[in-house]
């Protein structure tokens, strides 16, 4: 919210010497976030000048310039010669002249310059050059703005160009601060300055009269809500839309981030910024009959003010007349009844609409607007009468209209439930010993009505608090406590770390997950969390071994309509991350993610509309029902490798990532989890045939590893091959069982021997290694495959597997004979099982 300081001063006393930084500090102290400072960025002499004469001079380039004599006042050098390319002014017109030394937005410094055969001693400015709008309709003529000032007067002050606006970030729960009224009140809270409410008016003068009452068609309400609780109309006749918007209003709108669109629209925007209630104006002569507020028919269409035809949804709330939709309520008006240069009579609408309806319509049609931003956060239900009358008064004052007795009002009684606030609750929750006077004073300061509870009742000491109508975010005693803390300063809250109860900490499962993630990061992989949303196609491709269609959880309101499903695998997210990095020139990647996947059971419908109330612990039955509405969620770990593990360098060629790096990552996971993970030959739809393995723990499948199928890699826009792995991390940790204490390290030296075995090519090397370990017994400390040879010297259909064996005893130094004996015992088992023979 951009807050022009001159506007803020109208409703609250801001010290004359207060700087924008001072205002920022005050607003930050009551919970807003400082953004940036906005101004017109104009310095130097900018004055009122009067055109005394000019000569039109055609140029060789086809352009005709004017050589003007402009009086800028004796104090500014008297009459100056200025070259001007515009032609919309006449002799005698008063204009804005920027003299040498001035700097306009851009920055655009002004100096005396020789051009078109003359020395132009300054520049006659347009509205766009001064930062007052985007349109360049020629020179700014002061008379057309309804402004008069003596020649030589300071035009910066005259046009409000010396004003600045502080920009604050308003959190979604504080929609009332999207108005000067709300920000001024908060500034008053922060500084104690006197606040003047622009909405305080005699209710009798706000009555809209008769003849233009709206009707609500509630035959098809959504969830029992017809969508409109207030709808006030006023009629102003005889307006002149050609009248200029006053410079002070243009300046304030510009600082607030809005451009001037003509006096009638400017007035409605101004009042919206002032009071926080969006107001819409209709060309009364374009209306066809009375106004009906209703839901849209499915497939109904309308053209909004931006010229777009929109297909409506049955939940959209419409403003209609006899011709059909004339407005998408709370979002944007319709093109058929918009105010224009021919408008003479205006119907003013000020309303309050259901926030949920407006928010969904704005998002559904991708049509965020200043109006929807306010309605979806909640508008003060008592303000529409004031807003409609304020617009009407300004149209009378600035557009020459006449306020009539015509109008109508649709409204419901505003009932705000009281909130019980025990006296000890706020100090107990916040941790500050607030006095009762401080609690009551803070709540009354924000506009709440506070009534003390009779201490003789069972409820004890405390208060019943009725929040102000403009604070729909105050719903319970917790939000009231936050207000007390905010008003009295968050710096009063002590900084104290809680003492954790003894004997608690991370669970075994949480510790295991952390060990695995830390181990992968320590091994050089980078953790890259991704959004858990994907497509049905990606779920089918990566969520199953054969690529068949599996059940998926589709979101009712997805963030991205192109990816509406919850993921069954982590691989799609890693592929998106890899694609994004490669597109930015980072082509050598080793990335991983740990996260949940969603595995719905076939035929089960998940989700529920039954949401328990806040502030009340749900029953065991309610919790069980909520848990049953959530699909099973397993935590997986996945990794992706692509590019080069080592880049090309002098004397060494580049080495690509391959299966060996993926298998190393599997071993890292296994060591961190405390299990032994075996790799057996397998297949998977998304992986390259013959280059895929199934990962097992004690015979139980826990994941897979392999090279992506070239078609899958190409579909993900990966320029080379990629290797992936994915494991059920929770399943792996569950199979690890209880934590095993680390064995003591032997101080005796190891004995190492190698063995090469010839056997059938189809026999997995892992099973041969298990046979060697089983036969060698307890002396064998480690067995590692070091070579797989197939070629000359090895019979066809066979292969030679070489293993490095390390032997060690806990109580003595092994002899070579003992190591050899253990080795041969292992070979004997391998021979018995697989027919393996020692290679000569």
Can you tag this structure with a few keywords?
7-stranded mixed beta sheet, alpha+beta, Phenylalanyl-tRNA Synthetase, Chain B, domain 3, 840 residues, tRNA-binding, Phenylalanyl-tRNA Synthetase, Chain B, domain 1, phenylalanine-tRNA ligase activity, EC 6.1.1.20, 5-stranded antiparallel beta sheet, 21 helices, Phenylalanine--tRNA ligase beta subunit, OB fold (Dihydrolipoamide Acetyltransferase, E2P)
Gyration radius, to the nearest Å? Answer: 38 Å
Class derived from helix and strand content: alpha+beta
The quaternary structure here is: single chain
Share of residues in strands: 25-35%
| Count of extended strands | 42
| CATH fold-level label of the largest domain | BirA Bifunctional Protein, domain 2
Under the CATH scheme, which architecture of the largest domain would be assigned? 2-Layer Sandwich
The first-level CATH class of the largest domain is given as Alpha Beta
Strand adjacency order, main sheet = 28-31-32-38-37-36-35
What's the story with the biggest beta sheet? 7 strands, mixed
Query: How much helicity do the residues have?
Result: 25-40%
Which spans of ≥5 residues are poorly predicted at pLDDT below 50?
none
Euclidean distance between termini CA atoms = 84 Å
Summarize the structure in words:
- It is a single chain.
- The protein is α+β, with helices and mostly antiparallel strands and 840 residues long.
- 26% of the residues lie in helices and 27% in strands.
- It contains 21 helices and 42 strands.
- Strands 28-31-32-38-37-36-35 form a seven-stranded mixed sheet, sandwiched between helices. The chain has a five-stranded antiparallel sheet with strand order 5-4-3-6-11, with no helix packed on it.
- A hairpin with a 2-residue loop joins β36 (687-697) and β37 (700-708).
- The longest helix has 19 residues, at 816-834.
- The chain starts with a strand and ends with a strand.
- The model has no long low-confidence stretch (mean pLDDT 90).
- Pfam families: B3_4, B5, FDX-ACB, tRNA_bind, tRNA_synthFbeta.
- It catalyses: tRNA(Phe) + L-phenylalanine + ATP = L-phenylalanyl-tRNA(Phe) + AMP + diphosphate + H(+).
- InterPro entries: aa-tRNA-synth_II/BPL/LPL, B3/B4_tRNA-bd, DNA-bd_dom_put_sf, Fdx_antiC-bd, Fdx_antiC-bd_sf, NA-bd_OB-fold, Phe-tRNA-ligase_IIc_bsu, Phe-tRNA-ligase_IIc_bsu_bact.
């Amino acid at each position: 919210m951009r807050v022009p300081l001159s506007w803020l001063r109208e409703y609250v006393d801001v010290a004359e010497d207060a700087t924008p930084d001072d205002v920022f500090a005050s607003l930050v102290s009551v919970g807003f976030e400082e953004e940036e400072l906005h101004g017109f960025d104009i310095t130097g002499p900018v004055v009122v000048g009067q055109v005394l004469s000019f000569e039109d001079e055609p140029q060789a380039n086809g352009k005709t310039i004017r050589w003007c004599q402009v009086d800028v006042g004796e104090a500014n050098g008297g009459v100056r010669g200025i070259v001007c390319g515009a032609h919309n002014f006449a002799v005698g017109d008063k204009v804005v002249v920027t003299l040498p030394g001035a700097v306009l937005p851009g920055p655009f410094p002004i100096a005396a310059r020789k051009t078109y055969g003359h020395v132009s001693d300054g520049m006659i400015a347009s509205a766009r050059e001064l930062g007052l709008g985007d349109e360049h309709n020629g020179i700014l003529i002061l008379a057309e703005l309804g402004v008069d000032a003596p020649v030589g007067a300071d035009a910066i002050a005259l046009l409000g160009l010396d004003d600045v606006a502080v920009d604050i970030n308003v959190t979604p729960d504080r929609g009332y601060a999207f108005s000067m009224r709300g920000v001024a009140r908060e500034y008053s809270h922060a500084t104690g300055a006197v606040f003047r409410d622009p909405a305080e008016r005699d209710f009798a003068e706000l009555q809209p009269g008769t003849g233009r009452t709206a009707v609500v068609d509630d035959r098809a309400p959504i969830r029992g809500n017809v969508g409109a609780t207030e709808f006030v109309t006023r009629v102003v006749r005889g307006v002149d839309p050609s009248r200029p918007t006053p410079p002070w209003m243009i300046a304030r709108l510009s600082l607030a981030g809005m451009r001037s669109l003509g006096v009638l629209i400017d007035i409605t925007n101004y009042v919206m910024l002032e009071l926080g209630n969006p107001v819409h104006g209709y060309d009364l002569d374009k209306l066809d009959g009375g106004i009906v507020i209703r839901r849209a028919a499915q497939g109904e269409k309308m053209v909004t003010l931006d010229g777009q035809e929109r297909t409506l949804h049955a939940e959209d709330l419409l403003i209609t007349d006899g011709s059909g939709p004339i407005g998408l309520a709370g979002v944007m008006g319709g093109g058929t009844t918009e105010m224009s240069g021919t408008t003479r009579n205006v119907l003013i609408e000020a309303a309050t609409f259901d926030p949920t309806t407006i928010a969904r319509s704005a998002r559904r049609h991708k049509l965020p607007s200043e109006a929807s931003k306010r309605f979806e956060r909640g508008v003060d239900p008592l303000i529409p009468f004031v807003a409609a009358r304020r617009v009407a008064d300004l149209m009378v004052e600035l557009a020459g209209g006449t306020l009539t007795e015509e109008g109508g009002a649709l409204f419901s009684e505003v009932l705000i439930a009281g909130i019980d606030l025990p006296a000890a609750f706020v100090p107990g929750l916040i941790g500050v010993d607030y006095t009762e006077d401080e609690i009551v004073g803070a709540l009354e300061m924000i506009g709440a009505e506070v009534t003390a509870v009779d201490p003789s009742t069972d409820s004890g000491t405390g208060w019943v608090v009725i929040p102000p109508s403009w604070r729909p975010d105050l719903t319970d005693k917790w939000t009231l406590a936050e207000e007390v803390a905010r008003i009295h300063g968050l710096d009063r809250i002590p900084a104290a770390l809680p003492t954790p109860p003894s004997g608690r900490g991370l669970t075994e499962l949480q510790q295991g997950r952390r060990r695995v993630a830390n181990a992968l990061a320590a091994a050089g992989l980078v953790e890259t969390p991704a959004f858990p949303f994907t497509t049905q196609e990606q779920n089918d491709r990566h969520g199953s071994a054969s690529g068949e269609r599996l059940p998926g959880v589709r979101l009712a309101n997805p963030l991205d309509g192109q990816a509406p499903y919850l993921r069954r695998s982590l691989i799609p997210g890693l592929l998106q991350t890899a694609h994004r990095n490669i597109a930015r020139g980072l082509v050598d990647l080793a990335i991983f993610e740990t996260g949940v996947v969603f595995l719905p059971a076939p035929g089960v419908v998940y989700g529920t509309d039954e949401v328990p109330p806040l502030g009340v612990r749900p029953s065991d039955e309610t919790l069980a029902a909520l848990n049953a509405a959530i699909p099973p969620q397993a935590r997986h770990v996945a990794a992706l490798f692509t590019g080069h593990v080592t880049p090309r360098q002098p004397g060494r060629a580049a080495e690509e990532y391959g299966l060996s790096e993926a298998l190393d990552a599997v071993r890292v996971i296994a060591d961190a989890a405390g299990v032994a993970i075996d790799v057996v030959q397998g297949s998977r739809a998304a992986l390259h045939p013959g280059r895929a393995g199934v990962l097992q723990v004690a015979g139980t499948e826990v994941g897979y590893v392999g090279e992506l199928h070239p078609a899958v890699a190409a579909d993900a826009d990966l320029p080379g091959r990629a290797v992936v792995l994915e494991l059920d991390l929770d399943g792996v940790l569950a199979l690890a069982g209880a934590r095993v204490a680390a064995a003591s390290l032997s101080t005796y030296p190891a004995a190492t021997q190698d063995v090469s075995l010839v056997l059938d090519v189809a026999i997995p090397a892992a099973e041969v290694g298990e046979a060697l370990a089983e036969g060698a017994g307890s002396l064998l400390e480690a067995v590692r495959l070091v070579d797989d040879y197939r070629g000359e010297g090895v019979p066809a259909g066979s292969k030679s597997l070489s293993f490095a064996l390390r032997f060690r005893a806990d109580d003595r130094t092994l002899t070579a004979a003992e190591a050899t004996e253990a080795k041969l015992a292992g070979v004997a088992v391998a021979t018995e099982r697989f027919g393996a023979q020692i290679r000569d």
